[in-house]
UniProtKB/TrEMBL annotation:
GO MF terms, alphabetically ordered: NAD+ kinase activity
InterPro entries, per the entry: NADK
Organism lineage: Eukaryota, Metazoa, Ecdysozoa, Arthropoda, Hexapoda
GO biological process assignments: NADP+ biosynthetic process
Protein name per Swiss-Prot or TrEMBL: (apollo) hypothetical protein
Amino acid sequence: MYVQYDIWSVVAFRRTRSLNAPSPIQQFGPCGRIMKNSAMVMQIQDPASQRLTWYKPPLTVLVIKKVHDASILSSFVQLVHWLVHDKSMVVFVEAAVLDDTLLAEYGDFASIRERLMTFRAGTDDLTDKIDFIICLGGDGTLLHASSLFQQSVPPVMAFHLGSLGFLTPFEFNNFQEQVMNVLEGHAALTLRSRLQCVVLRKTTSDGKERKKPTTILVLNEVVVDRGPSPYLSNIDLFLDGKHITSVQGDGLIVSTPTGSTAYAVAAGASMIHPSVPAIMVTPICPHSLSFRPIVVPAGVELKIALSPEARNAMWVSFDGRNRQALQHGDRYTTQHTPGWQTWYSALTIPC
């Protein structure tokens, strides 16, 4: 009696381990083989192996808090005072934060107010000025921090001081110890990706755009809905130029794995681990029972446009911002930003 090992079992046993599944085999039978193409390979690293390292000591930190939120002022003053006096760091804050008159109640804040660097969102460019970011608030504060950077985003420490905390893993009660761990390079990283969205307006009779294309990066999701219209929306969805389906309902959500825990999960989608290279497409109250949330690879290009038979315009918003109407002939495309693991690094301290 003997045991015959199936060839697929042997190959599977020898595959290298990855985060989500065994790596695909490269050969099929004696002659078939996958053509080598680096563009179609997407590396997925084990989050436990992703570590933060500084090639030089960090000197500048951006502190983000919700404007006019009195409940966070005490924590904000403690943190900024410690960073400036104890750690001798250059601290950037939004000018609108310092306009809060309630800060005058904190007498020790006056001594560091003049030492803070200020900027105005949408006006000043922070590219290559910030070593890392500290957020005080909820997930909305983190989304605001993402919107300040249209290229790569510095590492982010997010302290949970808001209503929602999917993306804010730190507690503020021992902030000195946790920030020191980051400054000393004892931190793990969770790398997340953003969607690059381009709004293309209908061309005129001479072939020119009515408006220049608008490019927006989002961390959570793009939401397309019917707006104030009483009619159902009719939206055409294209995948890499091929028509996939027409969505009739209240709208459509295109989300990143990070955004799968936000509006998408409330609309019935599944949660996706942030290290999975994918895009989630979720209908909002679809009129058709056959259309359910779908997951597509991160490298594809999605295009969304009004169906020819649509009776009303559609409205689109990006991470809850920049809401605008799209008419017949307008469209928007979305794809992952170039290169996997691009936008920000949510820092988590290993036990």
